[in-house]
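User: Predict structure, ligand adenosine monophosphate.
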Amino acid sequence: MSDCIFCKIASGDIPGDIVYQDDRVIAVNDIDPKAPVHILIMPKAHIPSLNEIDNSNKDIMAHILTVAANLAKTKGVAEKGYRIVNNCGVQGGQSVNHIHFHLLGGRSLTWPPG
Ligand code: AMP
Ligand code: ZN
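Assistant: Predicted complex:
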């Protein structure tokens, strides 16, 4: 999608602080980190939000969570614990309309979220 910032990072049109990528997924350090480890994991293909996940594209969700679990290990937060967050839609707090999952770790996280 031409005006999507995450599509532009995935295509290399604008730089991102890439920590992992393969043919389907890219992971970047969040530009405004909320924890010592704050990585965004997303499909390279443009999917606006979790609302657009169905049986036709559900496999990418398993792949993203597998990448997240591997990154948690390589970034050293797996043992103490971490959080995976998906903000969906306006009331969910989604600000970039290209589905992505936040991997947050490296400090104690409070609950419930705001
Ligand atoms: P959300 O509010 O769940 O849609 O999350 C969007 C996230 O993208 C926020 O945490 C932003 O800090 C982050 N973000 C926005 N632009 C960039 C960028 N160019 N590179 C990395 N992270 C970004
Ligand atoms: Zn996009």
